[in-house]
User: Fold WD repeat-containing protein 17-like isoform X2 from Branchiostoma floridae.
Amino acid sequence: MAMLKQVGLLAAGCQPWNTNVCSATRDRFAYCATLAIYIYQLDRKFNEFKLHSIMSEHTKTITAMAWHPRNPDILASASADQRICIWHVAEQRLLTSLDNPKGTPQCIDWFFHEADSLSYIFQKGPLYIWNYKQGSAGLSQHKEAHGFMYDVSQFRWHHRRVGKLVLGHVDGSLSLFSPGQKPQKHVLRPETVDETEEDDPVVALEWDPLSTEYLLVANSHFGVRLLDTEGLTVINSYTLPSAAVSVHTLAWVPTAPGMFVTGDTQAGVLRLWTVPKSTPLENIKVKKTGFHALHVLGLYTMNSHREVVFEEPVEASSTSLAIHRTNTESSTMPPALIVCTFLDGGVGLYNLARRKWDFLRDLGHIETIFDCKFKPDDPNLLATASFDGTIKVWDISTMQAVYTSPGNEGVIYSLSWAPDLNCVAASTSKQGMFIWDIGRGKVIKRFNEHGRHSIFCVAWNNKDSRRIATCGSDGHCVIRTVDGKLVKKYKHPMPVFGCDWSLTNKDMLATGCEDKNVRVFYLATNSDQPLKIFSGHTSKVFHVKWSPLREGILCSGSDDGTIRIWDYTQDSCAMVLSGHTAPVRGLLWNPEIPYLLLSGSWDYTIRVWDTRDGACIDTVYDHGADVYGLTCHPLRPFTVASCSRDSTVRIWSLTPLVTTLQISVIAKRPWTEIFAMTQGCGQAMIAGNV
Assistant:
């Protein structure tokens, strides 16, 4: 029986690093976080899109994703781990993968006219075509798409013309290939680029869905053009409001022939265009932050049988069917749903006809979340610290972000709430430690006692709110007052990764060091030496945590994969908890049950321990990467939050454990016997029927 039950998930935001990270099919859409793919599916009963699954097989940054054009259950992804994965979405499983595809694919696209073939490219090529059903034997090179002068930033196969292909380059040029015709390499660069010799990368390109020759192209600086790829001519160039505005992404609107939308780089302005008109029909500011990617779905509606129906595009050409409007005509928005992702990680589904969000998940982290902590005076508010340089505060009752720090802090490794202020202290890789005033929305203090060294941990003293401790790669643990006065600076022989204040003694502090030792310092003395040094770990010690309920008891997690329980009064290791297969990071004592401990590890798991006998009473595998942070609030001791390199925060319930604990107290039997009984009897015992 599982002790930890996942009851909530704060999804990661969409990554801003790569371009092809948003895709959709009729009743599904997906976006890429750094290490996972989030797939949403239309719930036909409630007529809304809901999170369907999270695919997290990749071990390094995902670089591209593409949905199969004919089979909505097949999705492809590529990653910096030099692996291409083919997923079966409905079955939520990996179908197959191509390892070591000769590099890291930056762009992928399905070959429309060979059902099982995916193509990919990196840098200057060549373009590879892989029939995934044939395994590695199905890999071949395109005969002509190679030998380019510039890296490829985008490419698209034509959906109608067999074998027709366009590639966009970082210098702003295009390369065109069509069977039976001479290849055209590095053509149609924007004219202004030719004059200045400045590169103007192709950031987006899409074939006209109703034409065999027309192509919509966006360059980073020049803007958007409609091109005739047969005659190599520009049909129209589209004018933006000012030279300071640029387009980051675009898409055709399938329910409105000749219409397309663009998303601005500088701000979240969605612009609606029609092919003949060089200025936008509509300019809609949907968000403050700039766009990263978008994809347009046709509108879904409910018919008389309450079934979902998608409107279909009319079969004709975009130019012939394009809507012509004068400036005085009121514009009626075409029916369309637009999947929007933003540079700050935000993801939403915008209903164009209604001019409103069907849903918007704002402010998601886009990188590893290293730490999470509940606000001392509010069990609904959870703060998270991330590699992306931001702290975010979430309301877990609504699962929404309510505050975010200004950002640009580099890597934020750790955070700690002030016990009596609406402030958070955070430690960073190169920007020292700072205090963020949430109410005022700004950083109010900075501390640089560690110089340019990384600060791995920060701890605000809960018994004396004037003191804050930090430890870092310079081998020091520094204690200062909030106003900046240095209290102590404890030197260690190697980098210090963890520090924690005793919850029963305001002058007691423990540290974890790369030299494999745990140290306990007492500030009330004048000595710079530790009162105790605990040895036993065989690799570096990372976090240390004092028990909130048992005075003198603390635990430490190590790269040796173990957690050790130390008794300060006995000068000894009371217990070694073994089970993790990789370094231990997250540590959490339960604030209600004194012998209950949770740990998170690089082996992707969270383990629940009984520290009386060292038994691992539960292991959960839900996270898709290293688990770094674990926390709970004393007012809700059986609600736990965890954070991970998979960029998610997960909320867990320990309620099943409470029932089992009650049984164990009554039965007075060991854990192993209790679990054997509960596993055999299933839910009947928990319900009190046995």
